[in-house]
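Posting this for the archive.
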Amino acid sequence: MNSGTSQGETSTGTVLSFQRSLNRLNTNNYMRLDLFKLHNPKLDNKPKKWIVAKGKNLKQNLGGCIEELTVQGWTKPKLCRYIMQKFGVSKPTAERLIYLRKSFYPLVFIEELLKLTNKLEAKFVIQDKIEFLKVSQPPETIVKAPKYLTKNLCKIAGAHAADGTLAKDYFCITDGYWCNVKSFKNWVKNEFNLDYKILKRDKNEWMIRFHNKVFTRYLRQIFGFCNGKKVYSVGEPEIIKNSNEEMRKAFALGALTFEAGLGMKNQIEFCVASKKFQEDICDILKLAGVRFHKMKNPSGGYWRFWSNTLTEQETIKWMELFEPQTEKWFKLHEAANGYQGKADSIEEAIDILDKVYPSKPNSKVSLKKVLLAIKHLGGAHRYKIVDYLVAKGNFKSYGGKWAHGLRHYLDILKQANIISIERRRFGKKKSFGTIVREVYIFNPEVSEWKVPLRNQLTSSDVVKSQVTYSLSSTT
């Protein structure tokens, strides 16, 4: 009798404990991630494939569930037989689970206990006790378990939507900027405590690649990304779309940091094959209050949008949608504040400018060539500069009738104080009036020049000794 009373009191205490925990749950349940979705019954059809969890007080809470079942009439041997039949595990395995002799417990087992005790609706009470996840089958990489939607997770999702590759338990992301891949590495480190090396894929591309079942399950089961080709169908995950503006902007940040274009033009461009992706990012831009032009029909199979010509105020708004200290963020910062760096020589200045504004493979002209042309000529209008470049490069023409192709190069050199502009008269027009042209004059005082400031320029050099990897290899 006393024993029964003791068990009843214990059961009541467990129920009250659960209720108190339930009452303490964050009311913003839409920000919670359902970790039990990480288990896929079709793919995880054997115990060695299960995802298992560990936490400081997890075992204690599981013990409370098992104790409550014994009050309801279950015995531990009966529970062992039930687990053996339900999941097809051996008797020793079932006993280690029911008698709590393990350090990690399968998510599917935890969920079954909640079902048996009619506490499935309070699963987040137990979930809050989960701190780490791993896969039963070696290699056993222990992963920190994110339980709430965070800005870093949304950035990861945005970057993957832009440039990630997902195939079963394999993940890879590539980009032409080392700093972008470094940012992704930091997001993953902060959220999952996973730390992977940045590899050099080829001369102008960097990558991170790895196998991790827990991480890839977050992308598939929580965010809804599919394996394989996603270029035509990818978009903003529903869990992010249904969250708050801060999380949606973080998703856009991840996507724009990797996918948006920002070169010499004072304009941001976005070009993707998925109409849904374009529309989702545009919806977020409206929330952020930035102005842009959206293409309503595809061009060459791609959906595009682009910013207005950026004013200082617009530039500052756009900066919030790019990861700080990455190349595109720096260019926006410089558009608003000017160049902040100095060079000790012409050679150093040219090297810095050439790294920030590299030559494009199909372009006849580069910033470096324009700078050297003006230096050679001393001072010249744009038609004379074009004539020099055409003769030097041995090609027929460049820049169009009015030599507008030089415009962005000249704007950068002017911003860097490498050239100044004077308006000069060049005789009379054939009809009437005087020909007035802008003459671009080379400034020989290097100490007066201002160049882009990049700490990252030396960061990529650290990785130059890395072996170049093939993306097709996943070992």
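The chain has 19 helices and 14 strands. Confidence is low (pLDDT under 50) at residues 1-12, 456-475.
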